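Hey, I'm writing a tutorial for new members on how sequence and structure tokens pair up, and I'd like a real worked example in the thread rather than a made-up one. If someone can provide the structure for the chain below, I'll link this post from the tutorial.
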Amino acid sequence: MRSPVVIVVAAGTPVLLAALAVLARALRRPDDRGAWLALGLAVLAQAIGAIWLAWPGGGSTFPAHADYVLLLFFPLVFAAALLFARRRLKRLSAALWLDAAIGTLGAAAIVAQLLGETADRATGGGSDAVIALMYPMFDVLLVVMVLVAVTLRGWLVSPVWLLLGVGLMTHAGADVGYVSAGFVGEQRPLWVPVLGLISPVVIAVAAWSRTAEPRKVALEGWRTLVTPTVLALVAGGLLVTDHFNRTSTPAVLLAGATLVFVLVRMALTFVENTELHHSRALALTDELTGLANRRAFHEALREELAELGDGRLSVAMVDLDRFKDLNDTLGHHAGDQLLALLATRLEEAVGSSGLVARLGGDEFALLLPDAGLARTADVGRRIGSALQTPFEIDGLEVVMDASVGAALAPDHGTDAASLLQHADVAMYQAKEARTGFQSYDPSRDRHSRERLQLIAELRHALERDELILHYQPKVNLTTGLVDGVEALVRWQHPVHGLRGPGAFLPHAEHTALMRPLTLHVLETALRQLAEWRAEGLELHIAVNLAVQNLLDLRTPGQITAALQRHGLPPHVLTLEVTESLMLHDPQRAGEVLADLKELGVGLALDDFGTGYSSLEHLKRLPVNELKIDKSFVMAMDRDPADRAIVASTAALGRSLGLHVVAEGVESHAAASVLAAIGCDLAQGFYYSPPVPADQLPALVRAARDAQLGVIDVA
């Protein structure tokens, strides 16, 4: 006969070793440590219970005292499952807890119905029967939990979770044999302890397996309804069965409780779906105007195109003219009021058969199903008429204009992207031509394709050093000498020859290419200036600064490095900026300008008098030079108004301690007037057009030797 100690060791040692393996691995895991600790404790409870049962007299009755320890396995496993879920679910919602309650009550109802009387007969009823029934009830929950976990992950499980599932299901199988033998009072068959040994070993192997980063699982869709639906049907079946054939009272009560929780779950689902519908409506609605937003418009357009067939539709883009002026003058609050009022008028102009959406800012889009050019043009005219009635904003009457561009399907495209792009092109054509409405004309849409090709060629031009600089002299109006030059970029195109900046800079200004282009111009200009100064030409040089460089906090450091490379002091370089550049990000631009000012380079405010010129900018910007725009200078000898503007601007600049430079000087008369009103420097075709670098020294020396350009103001 085998020794009791040998029996105990044979029964408990493998399970105990597995428990220690799980616990040891849990302590070394950075991820899901709490969950694996709970699993290790569950296996440890299984080991202690197995040793207790194997001890002489420990398993002589059913249920035994060891069963209290063995049953600890289940709550610990469920706690581990909860800890695993917290890391993988977005949130542990009320619906999840209700599903857990439904699962628990449903499992209890099933077990009470199927095994209640058997447990009473085997144990004599009372608490022993309850303990005996807890095994099958927990096992049913365990099986449901594994199946739900697999279902939610879409049947794509990693080896770790597959091993865990096998270990838990094996444990449930061992319990079935253990409880079945206990109910009939027979010796447990051999396969029961075998499964009892396999289960903890498999769990230990899972603990030591390599796991991937946890994949988030959303509790949504049909998968979440499988468990409560099945258990609700089972509970309903039990109640129906009880009507025809009396079943156990516990089973009926548990089935009823299950249905109550199912009803609560249904009510919660209804509330969640209502909130979801409301959230979706908000997600598709523009908050300011109440119109459809960009996302809703795209969805509607795609749906219409999918059902288009042989039909037709129209897409139109609407953009307000001078809307920014309104915002700058009256403030953004007034702009928001205007947009809200405009939304109502647009909906009235389009009618109930079309969709009006706000895409952003002052840009709106119209979707007109079954509309051709005639109807679209009519809508455009109605929008124009609707805008003729003034808007009342903060007690003021404001009149606005809009530009409308339209594209038709299938004539101008059969997909959402091309239709919106073509409508946008047509809208900008309407804005430039001031026609109010413009339909897309393929023959006029060469600009965007040419622009893409030009940008690609310009990128290669930078790599092949095809960009060259011409230099326009800046003449001192007091001495007549050339004080400095402005560097102006040209493109020596291999096919089209020399191209001026107007042929390519406007296309590059809104691309990432503008920043390296500006740095290339700066580097080339400083290298050339260093050569001239080495030859004895004490010149200064001016370079235009692009918005991308003005907003780049690295720019001051890059300019410092460039000056040091060429051995030039900072004061020989002037960087020209326009006020419009400041509108993109005034705070960052101000930081960069302050750093440049501290560096010691000159800063010039270019094109003053046009665009967004304001005394506020002039006072705030750290500039030391003011450049009067050529549009005022070129006609000042003929136009008294232009002459007055130039004179007042020069006086303003002098009073602020700024050097005043006039651009666009084309006649001796204009030069004389500029000298008389106190301008410091002038540049223009009267002195010289922009010339290549090799021609400039002769101009400088000729002016110095003959004092060309000295103005007799006596």
